[in-house]
Design a protein that fits this description.
Blueprint lengths: L24 E7 L5 E6 L2 E7 L5 E7 L1
Antiparallel strand pairs: 1-4, 2-3
Amino acid sequence: DSGVYDLIHPNTFAEVSLNEGEMYGFRYSLHGKAGTSFKIELDDEVLAEGELDKSEAASGSGVV
């Protein structure tokens, strides 16, 4: 697959398969009402968490 996962309301999760011992990068871009909280998790690990500000957007990246 392309490795791109679009979650559009009402969807709240996507299943991914990762190979143990390999490094993966990820990016996220969220849009919604100001004050909306979000959390991105992989199993029990929180990768990103926050709240949309008055710009009504949040984005970031990381490595797992």
